Amino acid sequence: MRRDMPADRPDTRWMIDAACGRRLDLPWLADSTKVAPDDALTMREVCGHCPVFGHCRDFADRVGASGGFWAGTSYDARTRAHPGLGDVA
Ligand code: SF4
Question: From ligand 1's centre to the CA of 11, what distance in Å?
Fold first, then answer.
């Protein structure tokens, strides 16, 4: 039986295939100022091969993510560079 998501809740089923789920040793949720450059580079590489990259980027934008590392990008650094970007409408 297929269940559709309610219209007001973003679909998260794509997360099952997230490549970061197999690299839980990396600091995906850490403040970017505390992430070692090598770890940031490795996370970017993992994202670059992730089969759900587009879903991840769209989800982060849709929910107004203002922290963590999504789709090859640190969203807290992105929000600092562009104030208001992470605000939920
Ligand atoms: S693109 Fe998103 S889901 Fe895929 S590894 Fe990166 S952070 Fe995880």
Answer: 15
